């Protein structure tokens, strides 16, 4: 695996790959690679001949300077992990290569997709930072496929909208969330959890599980399903920023009876010094007309198995 | 020449061109093709094997609904002209193909480049409309080179910034303004000039000429050079929106003595029902230490000759 720092060198390298007829997959990361990232790299290897892992802690998507400073930076370990996972290129540009002097552009997805959930709590600027850097990375690499993780469900939605709206010629692939044995979603921020935080954090996947179970038991009322998740967090002494049960296409909050099809249960929860997010898709099966006909859940269990 | 209406068909067509090793040039237009556009197409033919002329009257860059409605639409004639000029594809998508339901994205260049001159008078939204549709067209076509006209000097500056900032893998080429025999810059809007407007409109290139001549005579004071242009417009009874003499990289207004190198003299002038823009580059030669050493002007004369 080669580590590349500049766009010019990256393009020279990829030009010869393309001439050789090789397809290219991109896995955008902010480093601190964990099993979740390795699942993305594995998916990219399935989907393309050559895999570029980008490692860039993008300052413009951090609403909180403290969070940016505290974000783990472990490039030497990341290079070993990416190479072991079969990546061909680690693209790790310095900030000045990505945002040179005079940089003045921004790519925005407007409206509810960036205003709700993470947008409401981190500010819409968070997603403008994401869409700008993703557009740049897609233009730098020109991949056939780019792979994202389902843990960042809203980000996936926003990136899909971006790619469709701006006619970016790339296929977006989404890989299920990878979890610890106790269910906690893998995240680069987990390393910042103190032992006492780590013990409490398991309440997050348990909250999602509680909602899934209630749905599986036949409950259809959105407020009741949401409350099941809230109760678990509350019992653990956690104060979520949000517990949203929403339309997975528009992020509009569900009210009343859940419709047939998928709904997105998404949470953001501060645990000690760390803000964690997680989500699960809850699916009401088409045939499920009443409480006696348990729905399938395309959620946590399935995702855990896939991870 | 083929006329193509959808992105899918365009990509299929270009894929086979690329497989055959042909490079692609894009000439983005809003139709109503005139000699200025034909010069762009000729430049694209020089620069690439296959030339795509896009024809799309982009609603999002019109700040004035009346201007959008009145914008000339002459696709049948345009197709003949583009084919005669050697274009291979006329890409003329309907609005719904470019902005489908749910479209929510915007590409912005922020700061002085879009806030000054046209941005100040048409609103920054004008350029956001331009940069969004140019990004889309570049993504749809994936050209090796895209060709723009020098008449829209600020647009060229903004597009160059966009391409650099977002790492769009395309070369931008700029073609000098093509003029009528009396000097009026060719514009799709000229057809809307009534005969009495057309007679007056010649004051615009004469104003630029007057400033160029004054500079050639040794004048270095920015205010004096600007005033020379303003006087010609005023004498013709025209009320310009702006007469700017600016740094061509930042559009910051020149004050005091003009520095060595190029300055941009740009004007926007309503003539009857039509708003016209024009510009010329004024160059103070490096050796010109004083008024006795006349500078070269890289401006109107040179551009007229090239057109």
TrEMBL record, chains A, B:
<feature type="binding site">
    <location>
        <position position="61"/>
    </location>
    <ligand>
        <name>beta-alanine</name>
    </ligand>
</feature>
<protein>
    <recommendedName>
        <fullName>Pantothenate synthetase</fullName>
        <ecNumber>6.3.2.1</ecNumber>
    </recommendedName>
</protein>
<feature type="binding site">
    <location>
        <position position="178"/>
    </location>
    <ligand>
        <name>ATP</name>
    </ligand>
</feature>
<feature type="binding site">
    <location>
        <position position="155"/>
    </location>
    <ligand>
        <name>(R)-pantoate</name>
    </ligand>
</feature>
<comment type="similarity">
    <text>Belongs to the pantothenate synthetase family.</text>
</comment>
<feature type="binding site">
    <location>
        <begin position="30"/>
        <end position="37"/>
    </location>
    <ligand>
        <name>ATP</name>
    </ligand>
</feature>
<comment type="pathway">
    <text>Cofactor biosynthesis; (R)-pantothenate biosynthesis; (R)-pantothenate from (R)-pantoate and beta-alanine: step 1/1.</text>
</comment>
<feature type="binding site">
    <location>
        <position position="61"/>
    </location>
    <ligand>
        <name>(R)-pantoate</name>
    </ligand>
</feature>
<dbReference type="InterPro" id="IPR014729">
    <property type="entry name" value="Rossmann-like_a/b/a_fold"/>
</dbReference>
<dbReference type="InterPro" id="IPR042176">
    <property type="entry name" value="Pantoate_ligase_C"/>
</dbReference>
<feature type="binding site">
    <location>
        <begin position="149"/>
        <end position="152"/>
    </location>
    <ligand>
        <name>ATP</name>
    </ligand>
</feature>
<dbReference type="GO" id="GO:0016874">
    <property type="term" value="F:ligase activity"/>
</dbReference>
<keyword id="KW-0436">Ligase</keyword>
<feature type="region of interest" description="Disordered">
    <location>
        <begin position="288"/>
        <end position="307"/>
    </location>
</feature>
<keyword id="KW-0067">ATP-binding</keyword>
<comment type="function">
    <text>Catalyzes the condensation of pantoate with beta-alanine in an ATP-dependent reaction via a pantoyl-adenylate intermediate.</text>
</comment>
<feature type="active site" description="Proton donor">
    <location>
        <position position="37"/>
    </location>
</feature>
<keyword id="KW-0963">Cytoplasm</keyword>
<feature type="binding site">
    <location>
        <begin position="186"/>
        <end position="189"/>
    </location>
    <ligand>
        <name>ATP</name>
    </ligand>
</feature>
<keyword id="KW-0547">Nucleotide-binding</keyword>
<dbReference type="Pfam" id="PF02569">
    <property type="entry name" value="Pantoate_ligase"/>
</dbReference>
<keyword id="KW-0566">Pantothenate biosynthesis</keyword>
<comment type="subunit">
    <text>Homodimer.</text>
</comment>
<dbReference type="InterPro" id="IPR003721">
    <property type="entry name" value="Pantoate_ligase"/>
</dbReference>
């Amino acid at each position: 695996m080669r580590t590349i720092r500049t766009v010019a060198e990256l393009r020279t390298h990829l030009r010869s790959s393309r001439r050789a007829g090789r397809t290219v997959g991109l896995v955008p990361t902010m480093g601190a690679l964990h099993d979740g990232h390795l699942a993305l790299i594995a998916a990219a290897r399935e989907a393309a001949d050559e895999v570029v892992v980008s490692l860039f802690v993008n300052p413009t998507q951090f609403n909180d300077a403290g969070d940016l400073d505290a974000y783990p930076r472990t490039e030497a370990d990341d290079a070993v992990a990416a190479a072991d996972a079969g990546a061909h290129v680690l693209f790790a540009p310095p900030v000045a290569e990505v945002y040179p002097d005079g940089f003045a552009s921004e790519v925005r997805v407007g409206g509810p997709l960036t205003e709700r959930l993470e947008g409401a709590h981190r500010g819409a600027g968070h997603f403008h930072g994401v869409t700008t850097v993703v557009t740049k990375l897609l233009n730098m690499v020109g991949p056939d496929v780019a792979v994202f993780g389902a843990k960042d469900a809203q980000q996936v939605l926003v990136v899909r909208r971006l790619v469709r709206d701006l006619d970016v010629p790339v296929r977006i692939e989404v890989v299920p969330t990878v979890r610890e044995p106790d269910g906690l979603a893998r995240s680069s921020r987990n390393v910042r959890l103190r032992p006492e935080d780590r013990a409490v954090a398991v309440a997050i996947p348990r909250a999602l599980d509680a909602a899934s179970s209630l749905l599986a038991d036949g409950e259809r009322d959105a407020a009741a399903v949401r409350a099941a998740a809230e109760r678990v967090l509350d019992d653990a002494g956690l104060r979520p920023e949000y517990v949203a049960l929403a339309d997975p296409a528009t992020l509009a909050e569900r009210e009343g009876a859940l419709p047939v099809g998928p709904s997105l249960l998404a949470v953001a929860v501060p645990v000690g010094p760390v803000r964690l997010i997680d989500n699960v898709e809850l699916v009401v099966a088409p045939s499920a007309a009443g409480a006696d006909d348990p729905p399938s859940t395309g959620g946590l269990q399935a995702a855990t198995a896939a991870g």
